[in-house]
Amino acid sequence: MNIIWLGHSGFRIEIGNQVLLVDPWLRGNPMFDETRFREATKGATHILITHAHGDHTGQVIDISNQQSAPIVGIYDLMGFYETKFGSKVVGFNKGGTVMLGDVAVTMVNATHSSTASDNGAVIPAGSEAGFMIAGEGHVIYVSGDTDIMADMEWMGDLHKPDIGILCAGGHFTMDMARAAYAAKRYFNFKTVIPCHYRTFPLLEQSAATLIKELPSVNVIEPEVMRPIKF
Length: 230
Known about the structure:
Elements: E1 2-5, E2 11-15, E3 18-22, H1 37-41, E4 46-48, H2 54-57, H3 60-67, E5 71-74, H4 75-85, E6 89-92, E7 97-100, E8 103-109, E9 115-118, E10 121-124, E11 129-135, E12 138-142, H5 151-159, E13 163-167, H6 176-186, E14 191-195, H7 208-213, E15 218-219, E16 227-229
Parallel strand pairs: 3-4, 4-5, 5-6, 12-13, 13-14, 14-15
Antiparallel strand pairs: 1-2, 1-16, 2-3, 7-8, 8-11, 9-10, 11-12
């Protein structure tokens, strides 16, 4: 299994018989070298979207069309993509699980906001979410954009994720200290990968606090387009 950071909150997860892109904002992303767009998206089987903000949806329509990869996410936003763009979609909702090949993806709660732009107007677009991705003997928790939630207690107990991909940049989401608190209180991660940081000066630039607060966890500061192997 490979987890490859695409900058900000974007990931390419090669797991089981699937290549999952998560929140692929590539063009206009200061962290991503756009000359590697084709490399980052090649062979994608599905595209997972946590919520509708532009720094997460990015080039989702283009990639879906190029790769014939269905977009997977909350029912309301998927309906918008299907109606407006004719996209192939898999719409479901929190608590639901979909099988993508031999990989199980369960939608879980997050606390943030979710709006889309439609011809210059800001419109509601379902609600924010996270994912539990199970395959190859691992469970990956993709937090999406969120703050700490009491829901994390049952999410950790029920799904028992060993890998956490946690937003940790602050200002719009948890910062490093809050992400560390959530990881310690609610989960038993073996590996934590921070995201939604370093993209802009407004966000945290280092995971040093996360590393310090989680001494028994392998905290990996990802590098764009460098695979993390499991």
